[in-house]
Amino acid sequence: MKGILLSGAVSAIFAFFATPALIRFLTKKSYGQIIRDDGPTTHQVKRGTPTMGGIVLITATLSGYFISHLVTTVRPTTSALLVIGLILGLGLVGFLDDWLKVARQQSLGLNAKQKLFGQALVAGCFAYAGLQFPDSAGLTPISANLSTVRDTSIKLTLVAVIIWVILMVLGTSNGVNLTDGLDGLATGAAVMVFTSFILIGVWEFGQSCAVSPGLKCYAVRDPLDLAVLAAALAGACGGFLWWNASPAKIFMGDVGSLALGGALAGLAITLRTQLLLVVLGFIFVLITSSVIIQVVYFKISGGKRVFKMAPLQHHFELLGWGEVTIVIRFWIIASLGVAAGLGLFYAQWVVS
Fold first, then answer.
1. Which residues share a beta bridge with 145?
2. DSSP states of 232-283 as a string?
3. Percent of the chain having pLDDT more than 70?
4. Which of 83, 138, 165, 307 sits most deeply, having the most CB atoms within 10 A of its CB?
C-alpha cells in the first residue's frame, strides 16, 4: 500500500509542476494545436494552445512508478513493465502524429492506415510478449482465457489472443483519442477508471491464489504492482488535469490520448478484466459508438446524420450546451460507469 500511495503522489506532483515548464517550452517553439475548420466555431479560440502534453503524462507516470520502487526497494514486475512498454509504444505513435501536425501546420498528421498499423504493431508485440514469462505458478502476464471480471473457461489460441488484444488496444486508444475533444474531458474520465484499477488490483492481490488459496481466489500475475502502475497513471492525470481543465492551458495531444488508452487496455488485460472495461470505461465506449453510428448511418442513408456532429460531445456543443456543462455531465456518466463496473466486479465475489 505504501508503494501505491507513493507512486500516485510522486506522479501527481511531477505532472503538476512539470506541465507549466512544458507549456512555456512548447509556446516558445510555437508547437500549438491545429484546429479543424469544420469543427465547432467556439473551438477556434483554442488555436495555438500548446499540445503534446502527453509527454508530461508519460514522464510523470514513469517517475511515480520507478521512484516508488526505488524507495520501497521492490523490484518492478514483468506485467507492469509490459504495460509500460505498451504505453511508450503507443505514445511514440501519437508523438509522430502530433509532430507532423505542428510541423506541417495542418490538422492531419499520420493518415489513418499509418496510425492503425503503428498501434496494431505495438499491441501485437505486447500481446505476444505477455503470453511469455511464466512465474513460479505458471501464470503469464496475459492469460489465454477470455476474461470478464476474472478469467472464464473460454480459452483462445495464440493467434486469437493476439488479435483480441490488438482489437482491445485499438478500441481503447482511439476511444480516448475521440473523447479528448473538450478541455479536461478525457483526462478526468481516465482518472476515475485508473482509480478503479487500483482497487481491483489491491483486491485481487489480497484474494490471490498465492495469498489466499480457495475456490474464489484470483489467478492473476502481479496484481499489486499493476495497482502501483495504475496509481501512477491516476496521479499523472490528476496533476495534468489542473492545467488541462477549462480553459485548457495545454492539450495532451495524440501522444497522451493513445498512451492513456493503451494503459487502460493493458491494465484490463493483465488484471483479467477485459470485458469489464466496457463498463468501467463506458464514457469512452459511448463516445466511440456515436462516431460509428454517425458514419454507418451517413453511408446507408445517403448523407443523413443522426447527430449534428460526432463525436457526441460536439453534438451537444452545437445544441448550445456550454463546454464546462458538457464535461461535468460526461464526468458524471463516467463515474456511473466506474461505479457499475466496480459493483459487478465485487458482486461476482459475493454471489459466487
1. 155
2. HHHHHHHHHHHHHSSSPS---HHHHHHHHHHHHHHHHHHTT-TTTHHHHTHH
3. 94
4. 83
